[in-house]
C-alpha cells in the first residue's frame, strides 16, 4: 500500500503519522477474546528452546512446540520435533519473510523418509483493529510442501492474539479429537495429519528471546464445565420443585384437618324440611 504519510512502529505494528489507518480502510472488528485467558506462568516443559526467526538482523518470530508430528495417508507418523528445534541441527528458516503486516515462517526439512524436499510454512498477518485500539497477529494458514510440486494447505481458525502477547494452545491440529483448528483447504490436505503439541508462537513484536505472556486458546467455559453447570441447574430445579410439592401437600393436609373440625349450624328451613321428611317416612311404616 503506497502512502505519502510518515510510517513508524508502535506496540505490535506500524501506524502512519496523523492516522492509524488510511481513510478508505473499513473499520475492522477486534477478534472475540471473551473466552480467552492470559497465561502468566509457563506451561509444560518443552525439550528444546524456541525457534528464532531473524529478519534484517532482528528477531521477528518466536515459535515453539513440545512435539511436531505429521503423517501422510497410512504411512508411519513422522516426529519432526528434534529436526525443528534442536540447536545442534537447526531447521533451515533462511527463506522466511517478515514484513510490517505479513510474515511467512518457512521450515525446510529436506528429504524425510519417502518425502522429498519436505517443508512446512506458516502464513501470519498483523492487523490494527480500531475497535480495540491495538494490533493483533494471526496464523492464517499452514501448508506442507513435498515432492517438489505437491502442496497440502490448511486454513487456520481462531489462532490469534494481541501483538503484544504470544499465542499458546495445547494442540493445533487437523484432527477432530483436538478440536481441528486446521481445516483442509485442498484435496492433498485431506491425506495428511499434522499436530503441534504445546504450540506457542509470537510474531511482529518480538523484543527478546522469550515469549510474552500468552493468550491461551483454553476457554473459561469448556464443554465439560458447561455441561456440569447445566446438569447442576437441572438438579437444582428438580429439588426446588420437589420441595414445593412437599410444602403444598402439607398445606392441603392441614386444610383438610381444619375443615373436619368446623361446625356448620343448621338454618330453620333445613330443620323444617328434615321434620317433614321424618313424618312422611313414619306414615308409610
From TrEMBL:
Domain of life: Eukaryota
Recorded topology in the membrane: Single-pass membrane protein
A GO CC term attached to the entry: endomembrane system
GO molecular function: ATPase activator activity
Any one GO BP annotation for this protein: regulation of cellular pH
Domain V-type proton ATPase subunit S1/VOA1 transmembrane stretches: 220-256
Pfam family, one: VAS1_LD
Keywords, in A-Z order: Membrane, Transmembrane, Transmembrane helix
Keyword Glycosyltransferase in annotation: no
Main localization, broad class: membrane
Organism phylogeny: Eukaryota, Metazoa, Chordata, Craniata, Vertebrata
Membership in a protein family: Belongs to the vacuolar ATPase subunit S1 family.
UniProt organism field: Channa argus (Northern snakehead)
Protein name: V-type proton ATPase subunit S1
Record's subcellular location: Membrane
Transmembrane segments: 220-243
InterPro entries named in the record: Ac45_acc_su, VAS1/VOA1_TM, VAS1_LD
Keyword Transmembrane: yes
V-type proton ATPase subunit S1 luminal domain ranges (all copies): 58-204
Amino acid at each position: 500500500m503506497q502512502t505519502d504519510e510518515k510510517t513508524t512502529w508502535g506496540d505490535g505494528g506500524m501506524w502512519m503519522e496523523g492516522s492509524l489507518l488510511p481513510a478508505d480502510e473499513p473499520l475492522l472488528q477486534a477478534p472475540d477474546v471473551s473466552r480467552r485467558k492470559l497465561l502468566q506462568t509457563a506451561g509444560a516443559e518443552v525439550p528444546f528452546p524456541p525457534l528464532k526467526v531473524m529478519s534484517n538482523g532482528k528477531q521477528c518470530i518466536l515459535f515453539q512446540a513440545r512435539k511436531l508430528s505429521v503423517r501422510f495417508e497410512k504411512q508411519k507418523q513422522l516426529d519432526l520435533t528434534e529436526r525443528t528445534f534442536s540447536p545442534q541441527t537447526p531447521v533451515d528458516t533462511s527463506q522466511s519473510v517478515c514484513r510490517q503486516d505479513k510474515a511467512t515462517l518457512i521450515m525446510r526439512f529436506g528429504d524425510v523418509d519417502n518425502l522429498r524436499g519436505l517443508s512446512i510454512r506458516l502464513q501470519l498477518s498483523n492487523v490494527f483493529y480500531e475497535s480495540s485500539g491495538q494490533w493483533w497477529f494471526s496464523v492464517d494458514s499452514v501448508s506442507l510442501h513435498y515432492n517438489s510440486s505437491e502442496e497440502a494447505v490448511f486454513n487456520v481458525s481462531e489462532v490469534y492474539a494481541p501483538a503484544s502477547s504470544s499465542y499458546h494452545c495445547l494442540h493445533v491440529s487437523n484432527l477432530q479429537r483436538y478440536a481441528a483448528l486446521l481445516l483442509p483447504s485442498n484435496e492433498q490436505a485431506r491425506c495428511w495429519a499434522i499436530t503441534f503439541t504445546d504450540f506457542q508462537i509470537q510474531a511482529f513484536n518480538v523484543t527478546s528471546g522469550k515469549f510474552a505472556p500468552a493468550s491461551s486458546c483454553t476457554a473459561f467455559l469448556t464443554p465439560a464445565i458447561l455441561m456440569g453447570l447445566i446438569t447442576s441447574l437441572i438438579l437444582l430445579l428438580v429439588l426446588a420443585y420437589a420441595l414445593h410439592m412437599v410444602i403444598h401437600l402439607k398445606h392441603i393436609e392441614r386444610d383438610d384437618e381444619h375443615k373436619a373440625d368446623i361446625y356448620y349450624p343448621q338454618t330453620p328451613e333445613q330443620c323444617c324440611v328434615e321434620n317433614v321428611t321424618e313424618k312422611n317416612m313414619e306414615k308409610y311404616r
